Amino acid sequence: MNNLKYGGFRYSTQNIGDEIQTLAAEQFLKKVDRRFDRDKLRLIEDDGDKYLTIVNGWFAHSPKDCFPPSDSIIPILISFHIAQENKNHFLSKPCIEYFKKHQPIGCRDKGTMKMLQENGVEAYFSGCLTMTFPKRTSKPKNGKIFLVDVPPFLNKIVHFQKLNNFETVQHFTNDYGETKLQIAEQLLNKYKTEAKLIITNRVHCALPCAAMGIPVIFFGDKNDSRLQLVKDAGIPFYSSRLKLFNIPIDKIFNKVPFTRNLTQKILFHRYKNINIESDEIYSTIVNPLKDKLITNIKSQLKKFQTK
Question: Is the pTM of this model over 0.85?
Answer without folding.
Answer: yes
